[in-house]
Specification:
This protein has helices at residues 4-9, 13-21, 28-43, 50-55, 63-77, 86-96. By secondary structure, the chain is mostly helical. The chain folds into 2 domains: 4-55, no CATH class; 63-107, no CATH class.
Length: 108
């Protein structure tokens, strides 16, 4: 796997896809998994321009964004003296996540 990660990190998605398509596998199940993952790389290559993102000093992982969201929601829901029902917390959550990501009780 050492040859694949630098291709992904370097934004060489077309080359990564080419390499993955030439892999020989021991089982049909593994071949199917690789085919599915290769399709993911093909469909999302435009989102994997990691060298461009690094040049703009953008974060590549989701951890910073997830932590920021948890902090903002946590601050909003855990202010002094506040008690929330799931319904009330969900209405606050909708302001931040209109796509319908569920509210876990860890935020309340």
């Amino acid at each position: 796997m050492d040859i694949y990660e630098p291709k992904l990190d370097g934004g060489e998605i077309e080359e990564l896809v080419r390499l993955l398509r030439t892999l020989e596998t021991a089982t049909p199940e593994l071949a199917e998994e690789i085919r599915i993952e290769t399709g993911y790389f093909e469909r999302n290559a435009h989102r994997m321009r990691y060298p461009d993102f690094r040049a703009q000093h953008l974060f590549l992982g989701s951890g910073v964004i997830e932590a920021g969201c948890k902090t903002v929601i946590g601050q909003r829901l855990k202010q002094s003296g506040m008690f929330w029902t799931i319904r009330g917390a969900t209405s606050v959550r909708l302001k931040f996540w209109p796509s319908g990501i569920s509210v876990s009780e860890s935020y309340i």
